[in-house]
Amino acid sequence: MSEWRRIRKEARQAKALERRANRTEELEYSRKLGRKLTWAEKSTVALHKHHPELRDVWGDLEAKIEIVVPQKAEQPADLRIPLLPFQLESLYWMRKQEEGIWRGGMLADEMGMGKTIQTLALFVSDRQKPNLVVAPTVAIMQWRNEIEAHTSGFKVAVWHGASREANAQELKKFDVVLTTYAVLESAFRKQQSGFKRQGQIVKQKSPVHQIQWHRIILDEAHNIKERSTNTAKAAFELKSNYKWCLSGTPLQNRVGELYSLVRFLGGDPFSYYFCKKCDCKSLHWKFSDKKACDDCGHNPMQHTCFWNNEILTPIQKNGMIGPGLIAFKKLKILLDRMMLRRTKIERADDLGLPPRTVTVRRDYFSPEEKELYLSLFSDAKRQFTTYVDQGTLLNNYSNIFSLITRMRQMACHPDLVLKSKRNASQFTADEGEATVCRLCNDIAEDAIQSKCRHIFDRECIKQYINTAVEQVPACPVCHLPLTIDLEGPALELDQEATTTARQGILGRLDVDKWRSSSKIEALVEELTRLRQEDATTKSLVFSQFVNFLDLIAFRLQRAGFTICRLEGTMTPQARDATIQYFMNNVNVTVFLVSLKAGGVALNLTEANRVYLMDSWWNPAVKAMDRIHRLGQHRPVQAIKLVIEDSIESRIVQLQEKKSAMVDATLSTDDLAMGRLTPDDLGFLFRVSTLRLEILMRFL
């Protein structure tokens, strides 16, 4: 008994000494800063006893790792395309990065500056294999085409589709293996969790995770930005000598998104979890029973993520002042040593890109359209004001989002609303249900499923979450707290049911009696004028609504235009064939593109006109970057088509207001653009500010 008391006494004394030492260090740090320490700063101090290497991480980083200053490398002899000066600089920088401690890094040049070509230059300057490129589905065939066009002797495999090679030894024979994030995640999931076969759970080794790659490239690397998703975990587990992240938007919404990229690149200690009570250190949050660490046995409160402590938490809580400013400076120290970013404006002389402009064409409803719209708007406004009067505005965001979507669709064409209920109800009792997004009642081109088992198009549900007032939005269907993996793999939908749904709105039209809309006729007028001026000019037409693209296609074909389309349901091979058909056929002058399918990784420089058919928070510049990029030699023009006296004109006004506000801050991202406040909602529904102010006093 006395021995037990002695042990307890020694333990108490050790804890007291540790607290005293921590307190002494805290006081010194506090005097140095001239203020009280934050919780995150105290947490960092608590790590120093058992992790002394963390005492001066940032000073060591700044002093011991030099910033690589880009210089012009020599043009690689085996690359068939001459590199621009800034691309030769990036080749030099990438080589030096691979020689250094990071063994890779982030190439974050703005969209359209040739990150693919710069990566191929790195490949040919160091022709070792195998190399793995992970890219969005829409981009993998473009990668293959670029490799074939600009290099020689590279053996390329596209690891995609049901018949893909399952043998790691065979994959290692290729110089470059191309795959998608969805396929990578699927292979990893089958390896970790298994899949059902004849009633048994079978685990299957992932070939790409068995190989020690020479070099791994993540194209559009922000696809792994959510660290907890299976897609990110699948990327983390890949093994290679060198790793690269390519992204024109490495930071989209939150500083926390950079964590996944840093972790993928192997950032020690920045992406590790540390224990305050012992020398336990791990890349993973190891609490299988949620009570004690699997390695050291200490509870979760004693473990902290270095990235959260040093970067994320201070910035989230303080912005650009005090601890937040210090965190931003630390982040800059890190990114200066692992990331290279140039913009089109900075390197305008090298790029020689033509000018680009954005204009807004404003039209009005026909009398019949106006009557239908006002009826819908009246019902929507009545519902909105009911939420305001009852003080339930923030609890009904999913319903409000649906009301806004209906009004946007009505401004495009009345049939999108009048026919949508039948379109949605057609798929409620069979397997075809999964083909319809529960937010817009349109085809779910990139379908994902929430935890409550409701199907949404990925782009629709992202917009819903990004514009939500609440921090944790409710499911738009069942109104439970929404849990959904935005970066997870797309659902594999029944092809026959999808095909039936795709024929939906046109199949219900009486073509002899069908009438166009003001917006479609405005587009026809624009394209007809363009055809008269120059019959070879090619145009892109973007819309979020697939059914609207159906109606546009029907009307344009009637007007004698030769068109083609890009949709999310296409296979990579079909997408590539469609893109090549548009680029190489002089008679095809109009390309209809779903924003949900064609928002990233497309190179369509044969076109120099963009028509944006429906307004939401996606800036026109994103659509323009499909054509305003290397290889474009003609002035680029984007035209927004807006119906006046509709919700669209209000959305455009909000866009302009929010854009000015965002430009005045550091946070130039989509989330800041998209977050709708109660005041914004009141503006869209034309509800008085006074009424909303009264409401907000009680929220």
TrEMBL record:
Residues annotated as domain RING-type: 437-479
GO molecular function: ATP binding; ATP-dependent activity, acting on DNA; helicase activity; hydrolase activity; zinc ion binding
Domain of life: Eukaryota
Lineage of the organism: Eukaryota, Fungi, Dikarya, Basidiomycota, Agaricomycotina
The protein's name: Uncharacterized protein
Record domain Helicase C-terminal: where: 522-672
Family affiliation: Belongs to the SNF2/RAD54 helicase family.
Keyword Transit peptide carried by entry: no
Cited CDD domains: DEXDc_SHPRH-like, SF2_C_SNF
Residue ranges constituting the Helicase ATP-binding domain according to the UniProt record: 96-268
